[in-house]
Amino acid sequence: MRRRTIKILCALLALLLLLTACTDTTEDGGTSGDAGEAGESAQTSFPLTLPYYPNDSLNPYFAASALNRALASLYCEPLYRVASDYTARAVLAADAQNSGTTLTVTLAGASFSDGAALSAADVVYSFERAKESDWYASRLSSITAARAAGSQVVFTLTAPDVYAVNLLTFPIVRSGTADNAESVPTGTGVFTLSADGTLADNPASQKTCAAQSVSLYAVKDTAHLANALEIGNISYLFDDFDDGTYSRPSAQSTFVTMNNLVYLGINGTGVLQSAAVRTAIYYAVDRVNLAASAYQGCAESSALPFHPAFCTAQGLTAGTTAADADTAADILSRLGYNRYTADGLLTNGTSTLQMTLLVNSENTFRVTAAYAIAEALNAAGFSVTVESLPSAEYLTRIAAGQFTLYLGEVKLGENLSLSPFFSAGGAASVGIDQTLPVCSAYTAFCAGEIDAAAFCEAFLDDMPFIPLCYRAGLASYNAQIAPDFSTAAYDMYGDITLWQASR
Fold first, then answer.
1. Which of 492, 71, 478, 49 is nearest to 240 (CA)?
2. What is the helix (H) or strand (E) element at residue 51, kind and residue range?
3. What whole-number distance in Å separates Cα of residue 495 and Cα of residue 501?
4. In angstroms, rounded to a whole number, what is the distance separating the alpha carbons of residues 157 and 447?
5. What average pLDDT does range 476-503 have in this prediction?
6. Where does 173-249 have alpha helices with state H?
7. Does residue 42 have a pLDDT over 60?
8. 237, 96, 126, 133: which is closest to 188 by C-alpha?
9. Can you tell me the distance from the alpha carbon of 115 to that of 409, in angstroms, rounded to the nearest whole number?
10. pTM of the model
11. 3-state class of 289 per DSSP?
C-alpha cells in the first residue's frame, strides 16, 4: 500500500512539473511557452518619448530648433548616413560616383509612407528645400545644384571634394509635401508623423524599430528639459553645451564628440610669421588637460585638424596631444630666444614673444581654456595676456585682424571640410597666409591627389593654426534604452532602427 501511494505521489509531482513548464508565468503576468515570440518582444522592446517644441515647425526645412529638426530622422531617410568614423553608409542610395565637380548618385528602390515610389525628382525637390533653409543651406554650400537623370541624381560641386557624399544627409521627402512651415513632409522612415505630432508605424517601410511606441512630449521651457528626463516625461535628451556651461542630468549618459573644432587662431605676421614659433606654441599647449579640465571632460583632445575618430580610423598618429615643454623650449632656443630684456621678456635680440589672446567672455569653457593656454605659453617663455571680450567686440576684432592669438571654435561639416581655414574669406581664415604650402596641400587632398597623412604632414610643417580639441555633447537617457552611437553626432538620434532595449 505504501509503495502504491509513493508511485501515485510521484506521478502527480511529474504532472505538476509538466504543467508548470507549459504555463510559465512572466513578470508582467502573461504566459510564455507557445508565445515565445511575444515573450521575446516584451523583453527587447521599449516605449520611447522624445521632446519637441509645439510652437516650432515639424517640417525639418522650416524648424528653428534642433529638437524638431532631429525628429526628421524618424520619419524620413537620407541618401547617406555618416558613421562615427566618417565613412558614408548608403540608405536611399545604391551607389555614388565622384568625378571632379560632379557627384552622381544612383537611387535604390524605396517607397514613401503613402506607397509612392521614390524618384530622382523627389531628391531634387528635397535638395532645393534644403538649400532654401537656414540650417541646411550652410551645410550644403559646396553643392550648387542637383538635377534628375532617370534613376540618378547629378549634384554639381563648387570644387572637387572626395568626401562630398558625406553631405548627402539631408532628409528626402516626397515632392510637394514640404513647401511651408505648416506642412509635415512624407518620408520613407520607419515612422510617419502627423500634423498633431502623432507618430505611427510606417506600413510601407521594410525596416523595424525595437521601440514598441514613440510619442512626443511638448516642451514649454528649455530650462526644464533635464527635469523632464529625470522624472520620466522624456526618454532621451542631447545637450551640446553651446553656452559653455556644463550640467548633467541624473540619468544614463554618454559623451558624443561633435564636429565643433576648438582651435587657437594665429595672426601670421610679425614674430608669428615664423612657422617655427607657431610650432613652439603647438608643443607648449597641453590639449589633454584642456579637454579634461577647462572643458570639464566635454571635449576630446586633437593633435591634428581632423576629427579624432577619423584620425583613428585612418591611422593618423602624427603630432601630439600632450604638452612637450622641452621641444617647445628647444625650438625657441634654436631661434635665438635665449636671453631676456630688462622687463624680463624672452628675446632673440630683436623681437620678443609678447602677445595677446582674445577670447569670447560669454563662454565659460573658452574663458577657462584661454587662461590655461596663456599659463602654459608663459611657462614656455612667451608673454601672453588674455583679453576677454563680449562676443560682438571679439568677432569685430578678429574680422579686422586686430589680434595676435584668439581662441575660436568652428563647426565643420560631415565632409571634414577645413575650407573655413583654407579658402579666401573663410570664417576662420583671418590671419592665415593663403600662399602657404599647406593651403595647396589641402586643395590636393580634397581632389584626392594626396591622402590625409600627407596633408597632415604639410599642416604640421606650416602650422597655420593650432588644433586643440573637438567639443562633445552629452546624450542622456533612461535605463530602459541603449541608443545608437554609431552615427556621427550631426544626427541627434542616429539610426532609430539600431536602438535597443538595455540589458
1. 492
2. strand 46-52
3. 14
4. 12
5. 91
6. 225-230
7. no
8. 126
9. 44
10. 0.89
11. helix
